[in-house]
Amino acid sequence: MWLVELAPVTDPAEVPSAVLAALGLREQALMYARGPLGTVIDDNDALSRLLAALAGRRALLVLDNCEHLVAAAARLAGQVLAACPQVRILATSREPLAITGEALWTVGPLALPPDPAVTYQPDQAERGVVPAPAIRDYASVALITQRARAVLPGFDVTPANAPAVARICRALDGMPLAIELAAARLRTMSPDQVAARLDDRFGLLTGGSRIALPRHQTLRAVVDWSWDLLDEAERTVWRRFAVFAGGASLEAAEQVCAGDGIAASKVLDLLTALADKSLLVVRHGPDGPRYRMLEIIKAYGQERLDQAGEREQVREAHARYFTQLAEEGQQYLLGGQQLEWLRRLADDQDNMHAAIRTAIAAGDARTAVRLAAALGWYWSLRGLKVEGAELIAAAIGVPGAADAVEPEHLAVAYAMGGMLAADTPLHPAAVEWMNHAAALAPRVPDPVNPIMPLVGPLSLLYGGADLALGPAYPEVFDDAVSGPHPWVGAIARILRAHTALNVGRRPAEAEADFQAAADILAGLGERWGQAVAVGGLAQLASKRGDPTAAIRHYQRARELAAVFGNSEDEVHFRLFMVRERWLLGEREKAWAELGAAQSDVERIGLPELTAFAAYTKGDLARLDSQPGVAREAFLQAFDLIRPMGMTQQLGAVAATGLGYLAAAEGDLEAARDWHAQAYEHARASADAPVIAEALGGLADLALRQGDPERAAELLGAAVAIRGTPDRSIVDEKRVADQARSVLGPAGYGAAYQSGQRVTLDTLAALVAPGVTPGAGTPAPRAERTPP
């Protein structure tokens, strides 16, 4: 085997001589060599002398670093292989030699550790739980460790520095030379300091070996070398392609990279040329090839884009293409192609988010809001609530947005922002945004976006409408239900059904709405809405006391939601199933269901979901006679909710659970305090079932205080407010049975009927004795003491 170093060679004509030198053959030794059939070899022809030297030999010739001499190297390789059949050639190059018989083997970057921003929680390094030994197994980490030890003996990857080491390797794309340059910096800088400065990677990574080739001494020189080997058209596509985040399809590249001398029809050939030169990575998928640049190559291209004065022109072309793509996808997200378009949009999520952010930075409110509005439903389906709400907040916050953006785009952005923000730390803005959307709606006489017919009713829903409106309130969705768009009508039915249940009215009509919506959406092929509708059917089955049917519906809802990959809806359905399994007598399955859900909850990390999982654990533990576990879980849920000011409903039911626990232990003062908090949260939520559950807790307290008559009244009021009995709440049945045993059927019935006449307006008088200190203990009556 002979290794031929071509890196120092600059003249293509000198390639044969370089190979001769590597073989150690002097010109004189070949003067009398004879070729095939005894012909004399011209000693002035280096290639002929080389062929003569290799004739009849069995050998491996390694041509290293061919990219700057690729044509000459290809000619030599072709002639050697033709004349010397026992010779094999291994060529290293940034592009293929493109000769007959060539077999390509792509040498990719070194294996990268996981993204620490995704894999690690912020405080893990401080707690010493970052899995440092695990990331040492990645080739890129092994290389930086080895090279760092050469300049800093004793260097190691530790739990404290593992995230920074991972960031360095990922930012440098696993490129060995770049990693070696970064490792050299670790002699005087910590991994965190190096990682923090990699935005200026070309200025930072300059400390290469003095004996290395000049182009290997700095990162910029490495990439300059590749740039200098290109023609002008290839350079133009490189710098323009650098605007893409996360790669691009051929169609996107043609739209964004063409223009000013580059025809769209030529972009494919230029992309192929850049891929052949290892400047683009090609991945083949269901929608055709996708092209991607390594971060180092992209950063260099962006510098060249600025130098060419094309930054704004290319940004606009990039934003224009992805706005069109997002708007096209909106209609398909509502039907049978929902999953396909979710995948397509997910492939370009980084591009679309980058387009919004760069538009915001450029003060381009029209583009930022229009694209954010188009992505709202995609964010909702993917569970990207926080990121989506933040991007909408930034887009509508661009100065002049109110005047520059078309009213419909602005209204949709506000409405989708409100829906996304409701379950995030941005929730205080949700009501304001929904109100803005409703105010803009009359300025859009012929709306195109299907969310527009729902904007007005949703603004009332998010505004916390007064429950005293009673049966009329669900009717705000009637116009949308009867509208021409089937998806809008189905979603409006779901919203109308939930609203009816929330105000304690018309459970039978709600069930009919859920079923009709599920049928319509099944016909459309839309899965998310089906999942929500079937989940509504499960809730009603649970209230009827049919846990078997409830589990069946929840399982179907989970199956429908699972395909979206965001897990949040699926986890909610799983958590709802926990109580149903316990009610069915499947104790072990209930705990197993909870455990499976909790692992997903930890991965997703949404505060409200974490709080709901904690509440579910507390509820199960209380039902399962584990008061210590229950109290800890309820307190965790309550503490998670309280600082964020979120989810009055969850605060109410957690406080009710704590009230039940305190009362069962005989601490009636603590029970009263918890039930008072529960009632306060419940009234603030304007949610009838939650208010009813708080009343059930107060009924338990009244019974333990020796007042079964008021307990019966409170139970009657709970059913009146809820609009239907809820047989899944076993505590209410227990309290009812005990109160009836003391009062007798007639006495219980009379008190219960009295409670049934209570309304939200008159409820305070009934509740006051249970939530006012010292007011809840009746005159002693032995016959009212619960057994």
Summarize the structure.
This protein is mainly alpha-helical and 787 residues long. The protein has 40 helices and six strands.
Question: How are the SSEs placed, and which strands pair?
Answer:
Elements: E1 2-5, H1 15-23, H2 46-54, E2 59-64, H3 70-83, E3 87-91, H4 116-119, H5 124-127, H6 132-135, H7 139-151, H8 162-171, H9 176-185, H10 191-196, H11 201-204, H12 219-228, H13 232-241, E4 248-249, H14 250-257, H15 264-276, E5 281-285, E6 288-292, H16 295-307, H17 311-332, H18 338-347, H19 349-361, H20 365-382, H21 385-396, H22 401-404, H23 407-421, H24 428-440, H25 452-462, H26 478-481, H27 486-502, H28 507-524, H29 527-543, H30 547-562, H31 568-583, H32 587-604, H33 607-623, H34 627-641, H35 648-664, H36 668-685, H37 688-704, H38 708-722, H39 730-756, H40 763-771
Parallel strand pairs: 1-2, 2-3
Antiparallel strand pairs: 4-6, 5-6
Alpha carbon gyration radius: 35 Å
How large a portion of the residues is in β-strands, by DSSP E?
Answer: under 5%
Number of helices: 40
Mean pLDDT: 87
- The share of residues in helices is 55-70%
Count of β-strands = 6
| Uncertain stretches | 27-44, 119-130, 464-472, 776-787
Numbering strands along the chain, what is their spatial order in the largest sheet?
Answer: 1-2-3
Largest sheet: 3 strands, parallel
Distance between the termini: 97 Å
Coarse morphology: elongated
Structural class per helix/strand content?
A: mainly alpha
